[in-house]
Amino acid sequence: MGWWLLTAWWWLFAISPLWSQDTTRLALARSRVAEGQKLLQRGQLLEAEQRFRQAMDLLPELPSAYLGLGRTLCLAKRFAEAIPILEEAQQRYVNWQQQAAAAELEARQEAADRARQFADLLRLQQGKTPATAAGGSSTGISPMANLARARMATEEYLARRRWQAETVAGIPAEVFYLLGLSRLRTGDRQGGIRDLYLCLALEPRNGAAHYNLAVALLAEGDPWAARDHLTEAQALQVTPHPQFVQDLERALAQAPPRPPE
């Protein structure tokens, strides 16, 4: 069934936070990743692999370097080598996101401290300056009221972020897609199915993931679920292999009725 697997590639660039890294190393590592992406688009896999590995050496924390290398290895059909690289990419994205969240929270706490200091200064100035006369430029809203509203909005924003709940969402769907594809091609069908489901949880309109999942589910003996994902893939403009469609139709004809949901 291996030749039914459809490979599709999305050129995802990680949006990386500005945190306490040496800016020169960060810039150089990002430039190597960008060079690697361009080389991949030209089909120069060996050169692209070298650029991504250089980026990893320059800044081991940069997750997009691992994703780029994993993508390159999959294109070269070196799936067994791609799996540990893509697993590392998952962890790097989580770490990067957590450090970004910590840096943002620290920056907001520092801003709140400065705002409080400014409010104290305003309070002192208000004790020394006469109130604005009628017809003056006063808005009727005190600086302290504005400050309180700003602080409340900031607290609500931070409360809505739910950092822990966003851990998986901080990993690009392509990481799970490539992992699923690599696991299927190396014989780990259960692992491949799991990662493709995770990919679709993040990117429901990933047609290639639906198609590969359909192929894996048919091999796993679940033709009804396979049909569902094939239907989704076709709706997303994926053209299935004719032999796979025939095998699925044959399996459905021999399968017991679908259990009620």
Plain-language structure description:
With 261 residues, the protein is mainly α. The protein folds into three domains: 14-93, Serine Threonine Protein Phosphatase 5, Tetratricopeptide repeat (Alpha Horseshoe), CATH 1.25.40.10; 95-125 and 145-167; 172-254, Serine Threonine Protein Phosphatase 5, Tetratricopeptide repeat (Alpha Horseshoe). It has ten helices and no strands. The chain has helices at 23-41, 45-58, 63-75, 79-128, 143-161, 173-185, 189-202, 207-219, 223-235, 242-254. Helix 3 (63-75) packs parallel to helix 6 (173-185), helix 4 (79-128) runs antiparallel to helix 5 (143-161) and helix 4 packs antiparallel against helix 6. The radius of gyration is 26 Å and the shape is elongated. It starts with 22 loop residues before the first helix and ends in a 7-residue tail after the last helix. Mean pLDDT is 77; it is low at 7-21 and 128-165.
Topology diagram in text:
Layout: H1 23-41, H2 45-58, H3 63-75, H4 79-128, H5 143-161, H6 173-185, H7 189-202, H8 207-219, H9 223-235, H10 242-254
Helix pairs in contact: 1-2, 1-3, 2-3, 3-4, 3-6, 4-5, 4-6, 6-7, 7-8, 8-9
